[in-house]
Amino acid sequence: MVSRIWFGRYISPVKYVERVDKLKSFITSPSSWFSAKRNRTFSYNIKTLLKPERIIVNHSANRKEFTASDVDFEAVASLYKDFMENVLLGEAKITEKAVSAESEYFAALKGKSVFVSYGNKTDARLVSMSLSNSSENKITSDNSEIKDILIAFNDNVLNNVYVYIADGKTGNVTKYSVEYNKAKFDNLINDIFAETIGGNIPSYSFELNFHKSAEGSMAKVLFSPTILLDVTPKKTQGIGRKNVEVFAENGEIPSETENAVLRAFKINPLTMRKMLDSSGMVFVENYGTLSVSPAGIVEFKAVEGSGGMALFENEPESSYNIYNTTTLAVDFISDVCMAFSDSMLDNLKINCELTSSQGKSGRYEFKFDYFIDGAPVLISSDGEMKSAIEMVIENGQLMSYRHYLRQYFKTEDVFEGMTSISAADKIVENTPENELPIYINRLGTCYIDDEDEVLRRAWKIDIEGKNGAVFVE
Q: Domain-by-domain residue ranges, the chain?
């Protein structure tokens, strides 16, 4: 297929039939090609792209961590969403609010509870919208950033549930007492632990005192308190990869796909320049250049000084906040994905902080990753680990966008990985003594796509004070 592409030559004039098709589309719906004002109502796409990274259910001496690959994950996640929706909409009444001490929070984690982690600090309004279609409520007025939500139960009280939220900006933990019949939670938790799990039970780092140095001694590695540590290696299934076929046998992008992509990027097919070069099919507009490669890479770069592609239309500067900008990013990515495949969004998830403090005012960088069995896929390219989608929006303008179109599938291979403790030990072994102790903010498994037929499995570890994650295989 690639050999049929002519490199470095303009396609001009465009084939007559294609030109007529595009002209008809332009005439019948000109606003779909450029300057169409987007619907500012928050998109339901946020529900697909902003989901919990892990859920930990705790009861008595039993504990189980769920990620998207686990059979019961959807059941637990659905019950969590239904409960939080009731709380956020005021249908489950908040009767009391208080600041929680760390010791009380830790005790609640060890008791009968459901701990939900999103992995990244996220604007509270975005979390609320993904759960309830509401951005203004008691929770969002009290909290600016949310990373984790803990739901705890007191066996002695039938209709009272406690919700703990740690504000990522202030560090304060707020405890809410909520009137709610906890029977559904009790039934699900009892079903999960109907049979004894047996074997090793993973521990929170604070239970092992691995979150702080003991008096009189200095640890070499410390872990964030809610990191779950397990000494039992886990087996994982092999994952294969393939690129999404973008070009047809004739070396052209099918007209339906091309038209949909041009609409997403607001490129006028009548005024653009179109060419084939070493990067694939290139579309040049006044404000930027879009390329689609045979390897399945979609990339847009704004022309310097052009201001980029307008996502906001005639909006005041106050609109360029993380909440509204995320809305645009999510809807835009949905448009691009749908141009290639109806199922392209299925395995994508936001995997970056969504906070107002992530960069200079009005400028936000977004990362979206493919997730397989609850683990993100990082794409190894040019000596760097890259996300499936990386984009920059500045003051409502799209400045850059790169999207790896990929499909993944499970193979018959089975691998046994190292434990989280072993991964941390490897980092310590390679860290100079004067840089110890290291403090691990986050760790989890990931897949690495480096163009091989089968993806590699690794630990992805975020260390305090270091830019970018450390990968251990």
A: 2-41+242-409, 45-201
